[in-house]
Amino acid sequence: MAFEGLTERLQNAMKKLRGKGKISEADLRETMREIRLALLEADVNFTVVRNFVKTVQDRAKGADVLEGLNPSQQIIKIVDEELTKMMGEEAVPLNKAPKIPTIIMMSGLQGAGKTTTAGKLALKLKDEQNARPLLVADDVYRPAAIDQLQTVGEQIDVPVFQLGTDVDPVEIAKRGVAHAIENHNDYVIIDTAGRLQIDEALMGELKNIESEVKPNEILLVIDSMTGQNAVATAEGFNDALDITGVVLTKLDGDTRGGAALSIRAVTDRPIKFVGQGEKMTDLDVFYPDRMASRILGMGDMLSLIEKTQKDYDEKKAQELTEKIQENSFDFNDFLDQISQIQKMGPLEDIMKMIPGMANNPALQNVNMDPKDMEHIKAIVYSMTEQEREDPDVLNPSRRRRIAAGSGRPIQEVNRMIKQFNQMKKMMNQVSKGNMSGMENMMNA
Ligand code: GDP
Questions:
Q1: How many alpha carbons fall within 13 Å on the CB side of residue 240?
Q2: Helix (H, G, I), strand (E, B), or coil: what is residue 420?
Q3: Which of these ranges, 29-43, 79-93, 289-303, 363-377, has the smallest mean pLDDT?
Q4: Which top-level group of life is the source organism from (predicted)?
Q5: Is residue 267 classed as helix, strand or coil in its secondary structure?
Q6: Which residues line ligand 1 (CB under 6 A)?
Q7: Segments in 249-384 forming alpha helices (H)
Q8: According to the model, what pLDDT value does residue 358 have?
């Protein structure tokens, strides 16, 4: 399968980070070195690799510690996102003409899969859009090419327009489009000639067809098995023609995958489809994000990472709610909340995540100064574990000790403890009220 080697190497590179609570610069450098080698080995273009590695490295270094994700998960996420970006981020649909027919011109080297892809595309349009495509046989250099397209046309029940091998390809293209207009075909797919290598005569001919029929879409068909050559070919065609999309064929084969990863970055043209087999149905819309997960071979891990990120706040809020309902909210939870708040945003917003709190009038005046929070933290830090877990033991002598320890006036310590107790009581009442309210609703 395509990408096998790359997937394995990328996984190995990142496996070493697993289970590490913290990733050092040296760990990161080593991982990035392995990722770089893995990509180069998979025939990804050198410049593309260099830019990729730099971006991932910068992002990994600058990454904030995301709650709920361990460092290796964060790096996997960054690698996945950057791989996706490298391939174009979003699927790009076929261009469509404002009025029918939409003219699609296939281009590419001989053997890349133009004729096959022309047929696959016609079938796709027919099946998915109920379209009435017309195939145009415009490769006059190989008589077998016309036969091949006709065979394909019969197979998928799509008409093929042809004028044999003695007519100029520009003329055939023009008359093919005229034929489509007469017959109300909504798509014209022109199968042009290829050569074994890019040559001027071929490019000249393709350019002439382009300027004569003005295709809405010029698809460049690239054989993904051809490694670095795929990129050079794409550049050559892209220089000569106004390529609007790329089709990568033979991704079902044993390709190392470099073409898929480099073409977008090098040509700035979107990959629109991938061919993944010889059957007429083996053509798929190209989704960069899905391809990235496939390359990383970490589909499950990635969805887990997404979920962890999404659910984190909710989960914490849920735990907090339970504590409040059990009236076991203590100074450790309080401290935890303050740290969270400082990371996540205003206290008011956090409180609103607690069920039943959002519309509570008692919350209207909650307003906390960041400096106050630091003072509160200092006070809690000066408590013993027992005092934090059981605030009821906080007698005057303990409070004096805490004041001295935290460097805050005793009045402030007293006020803070009082506020804590009020808050705890209030939260408990609200949560209970909320619960019975919910029950009423359920029983109604
Ligand atoms: P053309 O010269 O560019 O028109 O290329 P063809 O359409 O004749 O394809 C060349 C060969 O590649 C044929 O044997 C096709 O069956 C094969 N081919 C094309 N696309 C794919 C693909 O996505 N997967 C596989 N496995 N083979 C393909």
A1: 21
A2: helix
A3: 363-377
A4: Bacteria
A5: helix
A6: 108, 110-116, 194, 221, 249-250, 252-253, 275-278, 282
A7: 258-267, 288-296, 299-325, 331-344, 347-352, 370-381
A8: 47
Q: d(Cα 428, Cα 105) in Å, to the nearest integer? A: 69
Fold of 315-443: 434 Repressor (Amino-terminal Domain) (1.10.260)
pLDDT tier for residue 69 given thresholds of 50, 70 and 90: low
Mutate to test the pocket of ligand 1, among 110, 278, 284, 286 (most ligand atoms within 8 A of CB): 278
Of 3.20.20.370, 1.20.120.140, 1.10.274.10, 3.40.50.720, the CATH number of 4-86 is: 1.20.120.140
Tell me which residue has tokens 């805050």. Answer: 408
Two tokens at 200? 């001027």
Q: Residue 221 CA: which ligand 1 atom is closest?
A: 3
Structure confidence at residue 52 (pLDDT): 94
CB-based contact 295:3 (threshold 8 Å): yes
- The interface predicted TM-score of the complex, written ipTM, equals 0.99
| Residue 375 tokens, joined | 């003072």
> Measured in angstroms, how far is the CA atom of residue 325 from the centroid of ligand 1?
66
* pTM for this entry: 0.69
* Superfamily of segment(s) 102-289: P-loop containing nucleotide triphosphate hydrolases (3.40.50.300)
Return the structure tokens found at 281.
């149905």
**Cβ contacts of 261 within 8 Å, gap of 6 or more:** 39, 42, 44, 45, 48, 83, 86, 87, 295
Nearest to 336 by CA among 287, 376, 308: 376
- The best mutation among 192, 249, 271 to test binding of ligand 1, ranked by most ligand atoms within 8 Å of the C-beta, falls on 249
Pairing of β 283-285 and β 271-275: antiparallel
